[in-house]
């Protein structure tokens, strides 16, 4: 009924959670971050890496970006919305998923952006 999805091509969990859980035909992907790039000052590269991590997890479950039906974007600074939105949008050329974007007080490992998704086969 519930299958844990894990790939070496995305960061290992830093707590008691899974990269993703497949329940029936729905995949719940935990928030992805790019802490190795968070201090580089290159927010575009950080957002790109987050989306690549998501893509690698989707692939492990036999899915791709077209399977995403819902996204949640968490930003350290809402002033970064335009840049993150540009990177994020490049992955959805048609029929983008539902989404919310919120600014939060702090993110794990002090990153600038975290994105979680729900995908359906």
Automatic annotation (TrEMBL):
<comment type="similarity">
    <text>Belongs to the RutC family.</text>
</comment>
<dbReference type="InterPro" id="IPR006175">
    <property type="entry name" value="YjgF/YER057c/UK114"/>
</dbReference>
<dbReference type="InterPro" id="IPR006056">
    <property type="entry name" value="RidA"/>
</dbReference>
<dbReference type="Pfam" id="PF01042">
    <property type="entry name" value="Ribonuc_L-PSP"/>
</dbReference>
<protein>
    <submittedName>
        <fullName>Reactive intermediate/imine deaminase</fullName>
    </submittedName>
</protein>
<dbReference type="InterPro" id="IPR035959">
    <property type="entry name" value="RutC-like_sf"/>
</dbReference>
<dbReference type="GO" id="GO:0005829">
    <property type="term" value="C:cytosol"/>
</dbReference>
<dbReference type="GO" id="GO:0019239">
    <property type="term" value="F:deaminase activity"/>
</dbReference>
